[in-house]
What we know:
3% of the residues lie in helices and 46% in strands. The protein has helices spanning 45-48, 180-186, 391-394; strands at residues 39-44, 49-51, 61-62, 65-66, 75-82, 86-92, 97-98, 102-109, 112-119, 126-133, 137-148, 155-156, 158-163, 170-171, 190-194, 202-210, 220-226, 230-236, 242-249, 267-271, 275-280, 286-292, 300-309, 314-323, 328-338, 348-353, 363-374, 379-382, 384-389, 401-406, 410-415, 428-430. The longest helix has 7 residues, at 180-186. The model is unreliable at 1-32 (pLDDT under 50).
Amino acid sequence: MKKRFLTKLVAIIFLIPLTSCSGIEKSDEVGDNDSKMVSTISLPLGGNAFSSIPFAGIKTITKNGIEDWTNSEEYFTAYFRVSEPGVFQFSINKESIVVLGKSTLEFTINNESKRVEFNETKKDSYQIGRWEIKEPGYVALKIKGINKSKSHFPSIVSVTINSSIAKEKIAFVQNDEGSFYHWGRRGPSVHLNYQVPTDKDIEWYYNEVTVPKGQDVIGSYYMANGFAEGYFGIQVNSQTERRVLFSVWSPFVTDDPASIPDSKKIKLLKKGAGVTTGEFGNEGSGGQSYLKYNWIAGNTYKFLLRGTPQSDNSTTYTAYFFAPELNQWQLIASFNRPETNTYLKRFHSFLENFSPEQGDKSREVLFGNQWYCDAKGNWTEINAAKFTTDNTGTIGYRMDYSGGLLNNDSFYLKNGGFFNNFTKAQSIFTRSLSQKRPDIDFKVLP
């Protein structure tokens, strides 16, 4: 699995251009209220809609929107965010829909539903209806199939929204340039950058991670011990598989591990029992190791990372994992990184979703009792962290992200699911000191 702290997303905020409303067919339902409509947007479903059956055999959300929709039990929800209340008129342009036979679809916002009849003989645009949105935040438009005369419900590329609020007040994924649909559907990654001295020779990082019950969503990576050259944490890969993942980037910058010269490859020095090792690519490249282990939501797991510079201008990184169910430290792997001579730098944690189909699901993780140990064996507790998000969140692409303190003794991160209350990036949070220094005898580690 490719998991990386710095996403390669290059994006712009998708704020809506101010355009003429003359291209929208007006219905009697709008009437005099049409004078309030000041902007028109085209909401592409390929980047903003999610299926109620995300892992079905047939992929019904593509870059072209809703396609191959045959199952009447499946429905779709499209999201956009408004910064102030307003009136919204919805329609579907004739160029944005393909209809087979006759069908009825139901469109719902805030429990108010409107049904629309679709007919393949109709050559005009379809009016859906008007809703008044009374609160700022995310708006969810649910699209449900009621009946159809042929095998498929309509294929829909986009929904047109005529709005009473200004263009800068609405945000959504506008197009697929630069694979924006992929990154937008994944949602924002969020990070905790621990406030650690930069003038110390830090040999060990320690962290404790708890995924609350119900927050172990498929596609989630809860990264505990991040450092300048790699990352170490746990993830949910499927309904039946979970992993402990430890990776180190090569100093040779590429997305193709096969192109890395031998002199710049990450070298495996040792690995623990049951651990799989190899290479990874697509988001940088390097050495990867993982242990298939069905960790349990609600339990707290301990992570220990060591970084030691070597005399040959290389650095060795070693990762250990402690599961309370086993009550012992386990070696994950030890890698040597060439052209690197450093102790540990840039201690951080992050939370990300690596499954675009799961971007409408919210997930949360707790991080507690952070410590570092210098090369002389002195332990120091860390109790401050800066909250940040990736470009997806920073520029307003998606704003369902938050982080900070929980009960003054743990840091938390949360993302996905289109919740409304977000945390200001660059905020610094300080928890109470726990005074619970890790009780670890380095000499007996596996």
